[in-house]
Amino acid sequence: MNRRIGDIVTQTFERLRPKAKSLIITVYGDAILHHGGSAWLGSVIKLVEPLGLNERIVRTSVFRLSKEEWLASSQLGRRSYYRLTDLGRRRFEAANSRIYFHVSQPWDGRWTLVITNTADIDSEKRDMIRRNFGWIGFGQMASGIMIHPDPDTTVMRQVLADLGVAEQAVVMTGGVEAGFSTAALDTMIHNCWDLKRLADDYTEFLDIFRPLWQVLSASGELDPQLCFVVRTLLMHGYRRALLRDPMLPDELLPANWPGTSARLLCRNLYRLVQAAAETHVMSVLETAEGPVPEASPNYYTRFGGLQAGD
Amino acid sequence: MNRRIGDIVTQTFERLRPKAKSLIITVYGDAILHHGGSAWLGSVIKLVEPLGLNERIVRTSVFRLSKEEWLASSQLGRRSYYRLTDLGRRRFEAANSRIYFHVSQPWDGRWTLVITNTADIDSEKRDMIRRNFGWIGFGQMASGIMIHPDPDTTVMRQVLADLGVAEQAVVMTGGVEAGFSTAALDTMIHNCWDLKRLADDYTEFLDIFRPLWQVLSASGELDPQLCFVVRTLLMHGYRRALLRDPMLPDELLPANWPGTSARLLCRNLYRLVQAAAETHVMSVLETAEGPVPEASPNYYTRFGGLQAGD
């Protein structure tokens, strides 16, 4: 049975082909953030070794992530410690609220437009606006006009502030007038977001992780290290689809939306492996003051509620 | 005194330099529409002769207006009759409601967006949308996205239908969110509408017509033909500025907006000359059944109410 699990994990690796930097980001967001967000590099290297990452590649990745302001390093004696920056923490919190805490709620029919197509924003800044708003699910309706049917307005205001364009943005909220064609609205939605590609991504995610669920849910006790690997790959795969997901209200999605099944599979597999995965993280990860702190209480509210281990 | 009036009318001509076709449009909208909308070409030629238009140029103009679907012609014996088409009538009614029946009302803060930047509208059609929505005051927020703070929604729906894009448009209404910079909103308004140029147009209109008001309001009885000329020039000059005016709510306009004074001058001068001008129109204009009908009752509601002549 363990042999079979091992084969399926290997297949999962082969299908996902995760990049090192991206895996490190996933590990910081999924496994380190809720244990204080800071760790000795040596323990991070040991933690991610079963993910096929060697020391050199981890050092290169964390160095790059420092350049990109996700991480900041400090040196104590001969040891390097990498902690999340405030900006990195905010980026994770924005992403994590969508990954772990999404609750489907009735939609009030109000759209939000962020209008920044004013003369005094240069094209480079406009491109940053487009990308940053894309990360929080906004679609581009036209150059400098981003739209979302149900944004997290706190995150939206934070992104405007982080980009330094809060003073140059006009934010409008409103509804679509009745009495016009719904086909036109569908076309608008498909112009703003690539839902076809997103559906393909979710379908691929389901294809990759359904076999893991089948084999692991049928097993008895699970190996902590294996569970850490599975949880990390699961989050890596789910993030990849989800971070392109604008989280449109159900009312605006096509029928049989595969994102719904993907979320369910992700929740179930996460719940199955997380306690053992946490055991592994706690046994490996170290700060300058010794083992990392216990998971913050917030951790146990992921995916509608997790059970603490042992 | 009449000599002085004549000089000022001549100066007005020189400053306005009206184009023939544009004058004919003004005459159909201001003087013929409310007398049934149809007239013998010979009587139109006689009517506009004191505006400096000769027979040849009138024939060329009405021919062109037929090509542009404003007018349609019919022949009875050797006489040609030109009547407004349904489309021409709708265009005039849209324009006239803004010229004669504008009432400044408190604004509810709701903007209207007409979104047609979908894949299946070609650039030629997009350009038509931009121009036609421009005529009813909409500003272009981005290619394929027209905006107005307080549109006439009946006219808006009619324009969408006339352009054949009602099925491809998404219409949204909504308000600007509080807590953002009002400077950004000002910038947006100036990006969507050329208010500087419009203010210049209104100021020029005031410069041109104030002298006429001064001299005519101080005169005794006024010559009907002269009044027809003055009324036509007045409408020509006012239309020219007004038809570029998006009619933004007072709340969104700069302080000391010259459009307000222009409207007042236009109303007062119109009221002063219209009864005599109507006498002239009734004495010259002919249909196939003889003199044109009396002014429709709606005519007397222009500019908040006109007095019938004699």
Which terms would index this structure?
homodimer; 310 residues; alpha+beta; Arc Repressor Mutant, subunit A; Alpha-Beta Plaits; 2 domains; four-stranded antiparallel β-sheet; three-stranded antiparallel β-sheet; 54% helix; globular
Describe this structure in words.
- The structure is a homodimer of 310-residue chains.
- By secondary structure, chain A is of the alpha+beta class.
- Chain A folds into two domains: 1-104 and 195-310, Arc Repressor Mutant, subunit A (Orthogonal Bundle); 110-175, 2-Layer Sandwich (Alpha-Beta Plaits).
- Chain A is built from eleven helices and nine strands.
- Chain A has helices at 2-16, 20-32, 41-48, 55-67, 86-100, 123-135, 153-162, 182-192, 195-217, 224-242, 258-284; strands at 38-40, 71-76, 79-84, 110-115, 139-142, 145-148, 170-176, 286-287, 290-291.
- In chain A, the strands form three sheets. The first copy, chain A, has a four-stranded antiparallel sheet with strand order 5-6-4-7. A three-stranded antiparallel sheet of chain A has the order 1-3-2.
- In chain A, helix 9 (195-217) crosses helix 11 (258-284) and helix 10 packs across helix 11 (258-284).
- The longest helix of chain A is centred in the C-terminal third of the chain and has 27 residues, at 258-284.
- The model of chain A has no long low-confidence stretch (mean pLDDT 92).
- The interface between A and B is large, with 36 and 36 residues.
